[in-house]
Design goal:
The structure holds 2 protein chains of 2 kinds.
Chain A: E1 5-7, E2 10-13, E3 19-24, E4 31-37, E5 44-50, E6 53-57, E7 64-68, E8 74-78, E9 87-94, E10 104-105, E11 109-113
Parallel strand pairs in A: 2-11
Antiparallel strand pairs in A: 1-3, 3-8, 4-5, 4-9, 5-6, 7-8, 9-10, 9-11
Chain B: E1 4-5, E2 10-14, E3 19-25, E4 32-38, E5 45-51, E6 56-59, E7 62-67, E8 72-77, E9 86-93, E10 100-101, E11 105-110
Parallel strand pairs in B: 2-11
Antiparallel strand pairs in B: 1-3, 3-8, 4-5, 4-9, 6-7, 7-8, 9-10, 9-11
Classes of the chains: A mainly beta, B mainly beta.
């Protein structure tokens, strides 16, 4: 069984540009969450989607948006990139809404903003 | 504001001995606590969880202890193995879907 897959694995963008990150959850998983991990810090919650609806939003500016498609895959979009957006972006999936039994994380997309 | 703190950035332990990783939190409303392990170039892997109605949960070599009055949890690994060398994150949630992570503790198990 394929795990959580994220694309691309690495990305370099220029300040002010826009970026789209993609995530495919484990087959059958209906919940997708996005986390940002800055170097030396723990992952920070950005969004959760469940059954195509936003079910949680972290403390991130409106430049960050996301959506979930009918096949439960998800996109994270970031507009007007800043240098501080450079981070590892992690996608996590779970079968149900609550992640109290643990999420399955992908390997992440490493975004570098120059 | 860091609601979940792991004050030890690193820990070294001899193979076969006990590893104890600590985590403190500030939000008394947290109901669910998880531990994740992360190897370089991989996403975090779920290890073990505990809810606030329990004070201990065990899974093989891994045991998590929760002290609600002290707002403290710990992960015990016994016996420690070289393959346990990784970064360990604790995470906590009020709602069960938005998790706050600590900054991680890098564990090195020395053969």
């Amino acid at each position: 069984d394929a795990g959580v897959t994220q694309s691309p694995t690495h990305l370099i963008k220029t300040r002010g540009q826009h970026v789209t990150l993609r995530c495919s959850p484990i087959s059958g998983h209906k919940s997708v969450s996005w986390y940002q991990q800055v170097l030396g810090q723990g992952p920070q919650f950005i969004f959760q989607y469940y059954e195509k609806e936003e079910r949680g939003r972290g403390n991130f500016p409106d430049r960050f948006s996301a959506r979930q498609f009918p096949n439960y895959s998800s996109e994270l979009n970031v507009n007007a990139l800043l240098l501080g957006d450079s981070a590892l972006y992690l996608c996590a999936s779970s079968l149900v809404l609550l992640g109290i039994h643990g999420y399955t994380f992908g390997s992440g997309t490493r975004l570098t903003v120059v | 504001d860091q609601q979940v703190k792991q004050n030890s950035p690193s820990l070294s332990v001899q193979e076969g001995r006990i590893s104890i990783l600590n985590c403190d939190y500030t939000n008394s409303m947290f109901d669910y606590f998880l531990w994740y392990k992360k190897y370089p170039a991989e996403g975090p892997t779920f290890l073990i969880s505990i809810s606030s109605i329990k004070d201990k949960n065990e899974d093989g070599r891994f045991t998590v202890f929760l002290n609600k009055s002290a707002k403290h949890l710990s992960l015990h690994i016994v016996p420690s193995q070289p393959g346990d060398s990784a970064v360990y994150f604790c995470a906590a949630s009020v709602t069960g879907n938005q998790f706050y992570f600590g900054t991680g503790t890098s564990l090195t198990v020395i053969p």
